[in-house]
Amino acid sequence: MSDIRDRAIQIYDAFTHEHRDRRTLLREMVGLVGSVAAAEVLIAGIAASPAAASITQPDDPALVTRKGPYAIGPGKQLTGYFAAPKDAKHAGVVIVVHENRGLTPHIEDVARRVALAGFQAVAPDFLSDQGGAPADENVARDMIGKADLTAITGEAVATIGAMSAQPGANGKVGIIGFCWGGALVNRVAVASGNALAAGVAYYGPAPDPAEAGAVAAPLLLHYAGKDARVAATGVPWVAALKAAGKDVTAYTYDGVDHAFNNDTSAERYNKPAADLAWERTIAFLHQHLDG
């Protein structure tokens, strides 16, 4: 069963990150487990479940939350989900970057977790230019695949500038991202120079190692031990950062899958690894964003 599960996750990751063809996904899953019904159950266990989105409460009395537009330049806006401790004063700001499904309830929940740890948080919808993230995650993935990554990187860098001037903020801005969002964290670290105070990437595919010299912010990089696709880019990226004398800490969590932090995916979530990575993440963000 473990071999079947591992192969199923590989097939699903190919669907989400490569071919995006659900007919191919279903055909390969049926070949693995023998029937359409069993394949659908397996797919549902690997995919994120909106019903399991909230670990924190949207109306938590310790927080102030809102969702709406924010300006990143003259005549330019993005939609974002904001969460902050009540009466937050002199707090660092953390940009929370979604996966390739766009801004979902799960990512909003992660933003609240960040806020409960003492930061102001904003989770931008980087599909804002295409009308916003749709409820259908397959449509969202198609939209992400067609998005202009150079333009989105510019929007993220502009968000750093906008958030540094937030009321109650201390001017320091960090960024955390997951999967597609982890890849964007690396891109933003290359593009933002000294504007970024800290970056945390969870299993994010890395840029060309030749770009490591442009990174100024300290980075914390989390990798899944069974995630060969991302490791193929992550290993040379970490090596290049270290060779360039950059402040980088990288952890690989043995025996866990890509997306191990996503507690809405029953088959991939790994609580011990997720808890440890989160503890390290919050300590890292406090180290670089407090004061």
Care to describe what's here?
This protein is an alpha/beta fold and 291 residues long. It folds into two domains: 2-46, no CATH class; 55-289, 3-Layer(aba) Sandwich (Rossmann fold). It is built from nine helices and eight strands. The chain has an eight-stranded mixed beta sheet, with helices on both faces. Helix 8 links the parallel strand 7 and strand 8 (248-253). Helix 2 packs across helix 3 and helix 6 (149-164) packs across helix 7 (180-191). The longest helix is centred in the C-terminal third of the chain and has 19 residues, at 271-289. The N and C termini lie far apart (50 Å). The model has no long low-confidence stretch (mean pLDDT 90).
Short description:
With 291 residues, this protein is α/β, with parallel strands linked by helices. Helices cover 43% and strands 21% of the residues.
Keywords for this entry:
alpha/beta, 2 domains, 291 residues, 9 helices, 8-stranded mixed β-sheet, Rossmann fold, 8 strands
